[in-house]
Amino acid sequence: MAVRTDPVTPAGEVGVRAALRSPRRLKTEVLAGLVVALALIPEAISFSIIAGVDPRVGLFASFTMAVTIAVVGGRPAMISAATGAVALVVAPIAREHGLDYLLATVILAGVLQVVFSLLGVAKLMRFIPRSVMVGFVNALAILIFLAQLPHLTDVPWLVYPMIVVGIVILVGLPRLTTAVPAPLVAIVVLTAVTLGFGLGVPDVGDEGELPSTLPHWLIPDVPYTLDTLRLIAPYAVAVALVGLLESLMTAKLVDDITATPSDKTREAWGQGVANVVTGFFGGMGGCAMIGQTMINVKDSGARTRISTFLAGLFLLILVVGLGDLVARIPMAALVAVMVMVAVGTFDWHSIAPATLRRMPRSETAVMLVTVAITVATHNLAYGVIGGVIVATLLLVRRVAHFTEVVPVDSDDPGTRVYRVRGELFFASSNDLVHQFDYVGDPARVIVDLGQAHVWDASTVAALDAIETKYRGKGKTVEFVGLDPASSERHDRLRGHLGGEH
Predict the structure, then answer these.
(1) Cα torsion angle, 470, 471, 474, 480, sign
(2) Which pLDDT tens digit goes with each residue over 321-353?
(3) Nearest 5 degrees, angle CA 340-CA 342-CA 344?
(4) Which residues are CB-contacts of 33 (< 8 A; sequence separation ≥ 6)?
(5) Calpha distance 338→193 (Å, rounded)
(6) Domains of the chain from N-terminus onward
């Protein structure tokens, strides 16, 4: 029987203090941070280009986001940095009004994220269905893979065998040893081969110029007026919502992978604090990075805030202190790592024929909608929102169809009894009024609601309409069997909703 030797907290989460006392665990965290830092560099440069700013803005954002969230975040081992979703949102403000307005937008977005977290936005995560989560994961894997395609087209032929070698290392090395992260070995080996043989292949330096100075504190040079607020507020709200959604979804994914809980509210306001800090240090803002988080957690085995902190610190050291060497890392090595991240992230079980046969069509539809919207817009937030909307509509439709009205035999020939079963709300109660025989029923009608529940004002209005129609025929109707909550709602709203019109 294997005995776990990693230091853990009672909840099963590896603790920082205990990890610092464990050479084995600390080595894992340090090496994981180094691998993530290497993977962050080309991504941050690419996102800077998308946002229309200098590569330093994305690189500094990745440094400040990672270091700050390592301290204030609620999900240990999760990586936050500059992201494509945020880059897409801030690109217009950067293009039309310049860097200072972008930084002001990021700072305001961070403040809004703190406010949203205090209002309980993290609790909304429980309304995201599993099918949306599966779609989110699969879309993420597809986007990670698609992001590598530009590095696979119009490149020297040597790139392809190098990627194959990198993938072989990533797949084969863990079967021999897990002492060193396979991604780090792949990067080191391919870089050594490139430098040793002088291979002319695309490298990190081709992605953009690396900074040579440290980030410094600055205050955005913008007019502090209502006009400025009106200009940046829409972008700030979008950054805040997109960043929170992606971060909370990523936190939930890491929770599932590590079988440990996390504080989503703390993560939400932590993202806000990180963005505020990032804005004041000249960064473009960001949120959780799912691909790099998967490298950190799944591929490298990290479990603590140490790896997140070191990822940011190593990033700064690499680009500022060792920029010339880092610039020579072949993109083929990083592409190989990200391709395997995409393969490992995708939920292959969700598209297995056996799973598709068993899964309700509505669940599969929600998953596919989430994937389609995300891939089409390259925005995970849009995909999740679209998936939740479709899931909600399908659920409403399904629940509405469970409601039925059936006549029940009565000992009294002068009385007609109906029994209503199901959940009564706007979607199911709209047709309720048409389920009764107002002309053919006797003078007294009883509607038994003992197997139903009244959820909203629409249902009370429908009951009022039924009562009005029977009264117009000179008949009386009595509603019986209401549970306490339904009875309270019916008594409070009855006769006040215009049901007789």
Answers:
(1) positive
(2) 888 888 899 999 989 988 888 888 888 999 999
(3) 70
(4) 296, 302, 306, 307, 308, 309, 310, 311, 313, 314
(5) 20
(6) 16-347 (no CATH), 404-493 (3.30.750.24)
